[in-house]
Design a protein that fits this description.
Strand order of the largest sheet of chain B: 8-10-7-11-9-12-13
Helix content of chain B: 25-40%
CATH superfamily of chain A: Class I glutamine amidotransferase (GATase) domain
Radius of gyration of chain A: 16 Å
Strand order of the largest sheet of chain A: 2-1-3-4-11-10-9-6-7
Shape of chain A: globular
Order of helices and strands of chain A: EHEEHEHEEHEEHEEEH
Oligomer: heterodimer
Number of domains of chain A: 1
Largest sheet of chain B: 7 strands, mixed
CATH architecture of the largest domain in chain B: Alpha-Beta Complex
CATH class of chain A: Alpha Beta
Distance between the termini of chain A: 9 Å
Distance between the termini of chain B: 34 Å
Structural class of chain B: alpha+beta
CATH topology of chain A: Rossmann fold
CATH superfamily of the largest domain in chain B: PurM-like C-terminal domain
Structural class of chain A: alpha/beta
Chain lengths: 231, 757
């Protein structure tokens, strides 16, 4: 599989994402001004502060030429992974529901957290988004993953009706484990999927959990899952 | 405002003495015009010219086999193998931070990053050394909050991890806080450049942000004078940082250097264009013409002198061969970074300031950069203790024990020391920094649980360097209170503390950078402290064989109540072969033996306990540098061979706090008997809470620990790890605390910050 990692001015984690993708497949950077994604099979929108994020996180990046092509890739079922700032960009672009607000204590937080995969462990029907998502292939619903967060604007928010809907659709990819919600996210939501399951946005950084030396290897499973899933 | 400023001559308002002004006139053969006077006032300031410290700095050893770049460059650099070098430097941003902590600290980080990528090194880590007044002061909490947010704002946004640092709270820093930032970068040696202009006829290109009126006079008015009443009015001299601009500028410069498009590169820091152009010309033995009409401005009506001394952030000056200018401009455009050809390298040996065709300033480079007179200090040892003393132990014991402790009970004292803001865990601050971006930061695991993001009791940060198939360990340290007690011994201890921190990671020191934060050098006592401390640093560095590859001096750190504690902050970089083999600082296995290694002779002089009791006075025991070096070598080898379960150095709060930190870090208690120390004549209190250099708390297999003993290195097995309590016997005294009690005290900084106590 050939991964593309988007690079905006102000991206921070693009080299980390490139490294993580490279552990399971081939990977290359994609410049934000390039409408042509160069034939990549999957896209990672990495963490950072695209265009400085002075207006609102992800608000400018969503208009970049490369994002138009990312939307097309997503519509065609290609795996799209938005991490941190990438999650914010996907929400701004309307590819994922909800929004990311300032952390409830108004401080940046960098911390290892436990995540619970697949939303609720209570037997999700197989047609739910989480069950179809390439990123969650090989991760059982209810499994705990140790992955770091680092953000100042990571409080997931959506109107209650939308939250009910995405829960019902099985679009909750990850929740923070009990007592570990670092930012006040609604219903402890750490990551969400689109209805089809091929677009995942999450605040925790799986690309920073691919080596025991630097903390944990649980994040690698997301990349491996996408690698194994049929395109 | 200064009283009657309008009656004082202009040069004096700008910070020059009448003798210095006369010297400028003599060198020019005439009086300087307004532009030239502004330029001289900045480059002849203490901050730029080191006029009170340069003579002393000659004592520091600067040479070593692994040195790639030494003092005089934007940063120092050492060889780490496989054609790579690690560049690093620590710098102060104290006065800006005291006036406006968020921007002061943010631009401190921005400035030190530029120093490192100016060499062609990609920044891979930032560390900070912060000093504030006591935490119960609202001003200190405001400064702490602002500085932590500012460091996070800049470092987090630009994608360079903040991997470590230290924070002390002491009353003498109440008005004049210290914000020192250290950056470490990684470079291919073949792609590194020096900051010397070369090639007459080459173009001078200004890159990055446009030039505005911010930071006018920052180096002279703010950084080279004492703080005092009315400092709020100096806020316009503080620069404003934009990490996004710097992020683009950094990527742009690194690409330009990688493609070999620049002859040389220099950042614009204190004194802006004047300093960059002057220093580049001086280093290259050439002249430079700058046309201020071609400098992109934020405000159209800026005067030439303002353009020449503006300290607007996120700017770099490059020298480019004329034929390659279009390529350089194209790379800048791709990164959306401003770029303008603003001048040329000349053979005149002058910095000429032009506005279009008109020459508005013309000064010899030599006079501007190296002409400032260097002063001898007039040091005199002060009589007695210069600083305050306050007995707060009973109050601190009450807070730490929830009102049930007796200040004579060593268990209560241990909790009070662990809760002392300077000793307590700084996780509250460190969690506000991205410490993992870059995927190099090695993190320890605790038991079977997940790694703490910031291992808040680890001694040195470890960064993997796969490019050289090894790793580096980095530490920053400098306990000003101990330097105040004895500037010579205290400065030696600062170097040894860093060496000990590195030893715990299995690292061998490669080089050192320092930031000398002192009071007014024109006064005898701060002058004596500076003189003594530099001698101490020099002796320790020479004895350890660690070269000083760069640094910074920050003088005039005084408030209305007098000078700060003299604070030489030492940053040290070491190399280790395998980052997977680092020992944690926390106890790891039930039943492991716990031992004290090294020439540790604890004394209450200058200790945290003496401070809490209001019993500080001059004098520290003389450190045995050779014995500490031997202990460091033994620990380093033991860590590398994987023979230890944990290694932690004994520092603030003495052996009691070091044992408690290892217990909290590993979530495993210990049963310890300090009678081997008491039997040597130490009091129970000295053994428990006395401080001094050279001690390591190690845990592991008993036989393995005992095998570390040699002729030069002593090891005492003191007990074992296990259980849920910290139990330490010292003669008649008995310390007893549950892990939960100890951890609550040690992690009490957030609530103390919120409550203001």
């Amino acid at each position: 599989m050939l991964w593309g990692v988007l690079q905006f001015p102000g991206s921070c984690d693009e080299r980390d994402a490139l490294h993580a993708c490279g552990l399971t497949g081939e990977a290359r950077l994609v410049w934000h001004e390039d409408r042509d994604l160069g034939g990549v099979d999957a896209i990672v929108i990495p963490g950072g502060f695209s265009y400085g994020d002075y207006l609102r996180a992800g608000a400018i990046a969503r208009f970049s030429p490369a994002m138009e092509s990312v939307a097309e890739l997503a519509a065609g079922g290609g795996p799209v992974l938005g991490i941190c700032n990438g999650f914010q960009v996907l929400c701004e672009a309307g590819l994922l529901p909800g929004a990311l607000l300032l952390n409830d204590d108004l401080r940046f937080v960098c911390r290892q957290v436990e995540l619970i995969a697949g939303g609720d462990p209570s037997s999700p029907p197989a047609d739910r988004a989480a069950a179809r998502s390439p990123f969650l292939a090989g991760i059982e619903a209810g499994e705990r993953l140790s992955i770091p967060v680092k953000h100042g604007e990571g409080r997931y928010w959506a109107p209650p009706a939308i939250l009910d809907e995405i829960e019902a659709n099985g679009q909750i990819a990850f929740r923070y484990a009990a007592g570990q919600n670092p930012n006040g996210s609604a219903r402890d939501i750490a990551g969400v999927l689109n209805k089809a399951g091929n677009v995942l946005g999450l605040m925790p950084h799986p690309e920073h959990a691919v080596d025991a030396l630097t903390g944990s290897t649980d994040g690698l499973r997301l990349f491996e899952g996408a690698e194994r899933s049929p395109a | 405002m200064m009283p009657a400023a309008e009656q004082r001559p202009e040069y004096e308002v700008l910070g020059l003495t009448s003798a210095e002004y006369e010297s400028i006139c003599e060198k020019l053969g005439r009086e300087p015009n307004g532009v030239e006077l502004a330029m001289f006032s900045l480059l002849w300031s203490e901050h730029c010219a080191y006029k009170h410290s340069r003579k002393l700095l000659g004592r520091l050893p600067t040479e070593g086999e692994r040195v790639v770049m030494g003092p005089g460059e934007n940063a120092g650099a050492v060889d780490i193998g496989n054609g790579h070098a690690v560049a690093f430097k620590v710098e102060s941003h104290n006065h800006p931070s005291a006036v406006e902590p968020f921007q002061g600290a943010a631009t401190g980080v921005g400035g030190i990053l530029r120093d490192v990528f100016a060499l062609g090194a990609r920044p891979i880590a930032v560390l900070d050394s912060l000093r504030f007044g006591e935490l119960d002061s609202i001003r200190s909490r405001h400064l702490l909050d602002g500085a932590v947010r500012g460091i996070g704002h800049y470092g987090n946004s630009i994608g360079v991890p903040t991997v470590g640092g230290e924070i002390y709270f002491e009353a003498p820093y109440e008005h004049n806080c210290l914000v020192n930032a250290m950056c470490v970068g990684l470079a291919k040696q073949a792609e590194m450049v020096r900051a010397a202009a070369a090639g007459v006829g080459n173009a001078v290109v200004l890159m990055g942000a446009s030039t505005g009126r911010d930071g006018i006079g920052g180096a002279s008015v703010l950084a080279s004078a004492e703080l005092g009443e009315g400092d709020d009015e100096k806020r316009p001299t503080v620069q404003i940082g934009d990490p996004f601009e710097e992020s683009k500028l950094m990527e742009c410069c690194l690409e330009l250097l990688q493609r070999g498009l620049l002859v040389s590169l220099q950042d614009l820091g204190a004194a802006g264009l004047t300093s960059s152009a002057g220093e580049m010309a001086s280093a290259g033995g050439v002249g430079i013409d700058i046309d201020v009409a071609r400098v992109p401005l934020r405000e159209a009506d800026m005067e030439p002198f303002e353009i020449m001394i503006s300290e607007s952030q996120e700017r770099m000056l490059g020298v480019v061969e004329p034929a390659r200018v279009p390529e350089v401009l194209a790379v800048c455009e791709r990164w959306q970074t401003g770029a303008a050809e603003i001048g040329a390298v000349t053979d005149g040996g002058h910095v000429r300031v032009l506005r279009g065709e008109e020459v508005v300033g013309d000064v010899p480079v030599e006079a501007l950069v190296d002409g400032c007179p260097l002063y001898d200090l007039d040091p005199a040892e002060p009589e007695g203790w210069l600083y305050g003393n306050a007995d707060v132990l009973a109050e601190r014991v009450m807070t730490a024990t929830g009102g049930v402790g007796d200040p004579a009970d060593p268990s209560a004292i241990l909790l009070a020391l662990l809760a002392s803001p300077s000793v307590a865990s700084k996780r509250w601050a460190f969690e506000q920094y991205d410490s993992i971006v870059g995927s190099r930061t090695a993190r320890e695991r605790v038991g079977d649980g997940a790694a703490p993001t910031v291992s808040d009791c680890s001694d040195a940060a470890v960064l993997a360097i796969p490019e050289a198939d090894n790793a580096i360990a980095v530490s920053i340290d400098g306990n000003g209170r101990r330097v105040a007690c004895d500037p010579h011994a205290g400065a030696v201890e600062a170097v040894l503390e860093c060496a000990q921190n590195l030893a715990c990671a299995g690292a061998e020191p490669l080089g050192l950078t320092n930031c000398l934060n002192f009071g007014n050098p024109e006064k005898p006592a701060p002058a004596w402290q500076l003189d003594q401390a530099v001698t101490g640093l020099a002796e320790a560095c020479a004895a350890l064989g660690v070269p000083v590859v760069g640094g910074n001096v920050s003088l005039y750190n005084e408030g209305p109540d007098g000078p700060i504690y003299p604070t030489p902050v030492v940053g040290m970089v070491g190399e280790l072969p395998d980052p997977a083999r680092i020992a944690g600082s926390g106890f790891a296995r039930e039943g492991d033996a716990v031992a004290l290694l090294g020439p540790f002779s604890p004394s209450l002089a200058g200790s945290e306990l003496a401070k809490l009791r209001g019993e500080l006075s001059p004098g520290l025991p003389k450190p045995d540098i050779g014995a500490v070096a031997a202990a460091c070598a033994a620990v380093r080898d033991a860590v590398r061979s994987g023979r230890l379960s944990s290694a932690h150095d004994v520092s603030d709060g003495g052996l009691g706090c070091a044992l408690a930190e290892s217990a909290i870090g590993g979530r495993l208690g210990c049963r310890i008997d300090l009678s081997p120390l008491v039997d040597r004549g130490l009091s129970a209190e000295q053994a428990l809470f006395g401080e001094g250099t050279g001690g390591f708390v190690l845990s592991g297999d008993r036989a393995a620990l005992e095998s570390l003993a040699t002729e030069d290195v002593e090891i005492l097995v003191l007990g074992e790890a296990g259980g849920e309590a910290i139990e330490i016997a010292a003669g008649e005294a008995q310390v007893s605390a549950t892990l939960k009690q100890a951890e609550r005290a040690w992690r009490s900084l957030p609530e103390r910050f919120e409550l203001g106590s």
